[in-house]
């Protein structure tokens, strides 16, 4: 669509960024970044992953993730490819805090963005449908007209009484940009090397931290212990392969980084509530439930 962009570097500047992409975009992956992300699905059905939440999405599913909240949206294999699946608005925590300082009476907006968004939030599909024109305005309008459209959109989000949190674990953004970048480096390393022997020692060494200091740092900012996050990443990648390929479950187990099938099955069941075989059968033919 010509609007894809790198998500890095959004934590410091006050700008509002817009992007849109299709169901086969390179941006579709389990990842996290230091920006807020307001995400509207406009085509296809599939599975949403936000922190430790897993659930269905359909057209006009609208979700908000705060800084450092890992997320992904995976379209079902049975769906036809869509040139436009996602409308996305990204904005920094610095921008949010400046807005709150400017409008101190907007306590409902402060709660939405500084507290609730740490878990990820899903809004009503009716609101998602109603707000699609605002995404287009944020995309098309320059300057103050863009900012005004964004404020109207955020106000509507804060007034949605049906919204609900997603992840059971909150994710803590860092007020220090260098800390946010350090966390990004850690998560990016895990993302690249999860299929191998990724260890706490290796990541701590890469960040020039002691193992104990890195362990505390990682848990404080993600809500996960290191090995929990690695297993979550591996299981999430396995979910993608189970739905998007015909590979044998044993092959997928080793490809995503587990060393034996029994451990893979145990971790998968604990995180998804079903076996890999059950997951594959359900999600290849599941209707949307939103």
TrEMBL record:
PANTHER family: HTH-TYPE TRANSCRIPTIONAL ACTIVATOR RHAS-RELATED. It comes from Luteibacter yeojuensis. GO terms for molecular function: DNA-binding transcription factor activity; sequence-specific DNA binding. It comes from the Bacteria. Gene3D superfamilies: Homeodomain-like, Jelly Rolls. This is HTH araC/xylS-type domain-containing protein. Keywords: DNA-binding, Transcription, Transcription regulation. The keyword Transcription regulation applies. Pfam families: HTH_18. The keyword Cell cycle does not apply. Residues 184-282 form the HTH araC/xylS-type domain.
């Amino acid at each position: 669509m010509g609007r894809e962009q790198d998500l890095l570097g959004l934590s410091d500047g006050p700008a509002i960024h817009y992007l849109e992409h299709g169901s086969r975009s390179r941006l579709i992956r389990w990842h996290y970044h230091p920006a807020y992300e307001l995400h509207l699905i406009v085509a296809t059905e599939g599975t949403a992953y936000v922190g430790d939440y897993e659930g269905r999405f359909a057209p006009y599913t609208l979700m908000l993730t705060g800084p450092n909240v890992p997320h992904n949206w995976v379209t079902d294999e049975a769906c036809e490819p869509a040139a436009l699946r996602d409308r996305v608005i990204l904005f920094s925590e610095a921008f949010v805090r400046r807005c709150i300082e400017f409008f101190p009476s907007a306590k409902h907006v402060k709660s939405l963005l500084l507290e609730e968004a740490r878990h990820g939030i899903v809004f009503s599909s009716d609101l998602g449908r109603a707000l699609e024109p605002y995404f287009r305005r944020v995309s098309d309008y320059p300057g103050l007209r863009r900012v005004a459209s964004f404020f109207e959109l955020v106000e509507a989000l804060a007034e949605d009484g049906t919204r609900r949190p997603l992840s059971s674990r909150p994710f803590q953004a860092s007020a220090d940009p260098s800390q946010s970048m350090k966390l990004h480096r850690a998560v990016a390393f895990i993302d690249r090397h999860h299929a191998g022997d990724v260890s706490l020692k290796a990541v701590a060494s890469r960040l020039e931290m002691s193992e104990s200091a890195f362990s505390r740092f990682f848990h404080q900012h993600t809500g996960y212990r290191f090995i929990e996050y690695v297993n979550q990443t591996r299981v999430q990648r396995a979910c993608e392969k189970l739905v998007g390929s015909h590979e044998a479950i044993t092959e997928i187990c080793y490809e995503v980084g587990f060393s034996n099938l029994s451990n893979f099955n145990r971790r998968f069941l604990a995180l998804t509530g079903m076996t890999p075989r059950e997951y594959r059968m359900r999600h290849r033919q599941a209707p949307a439930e939103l």
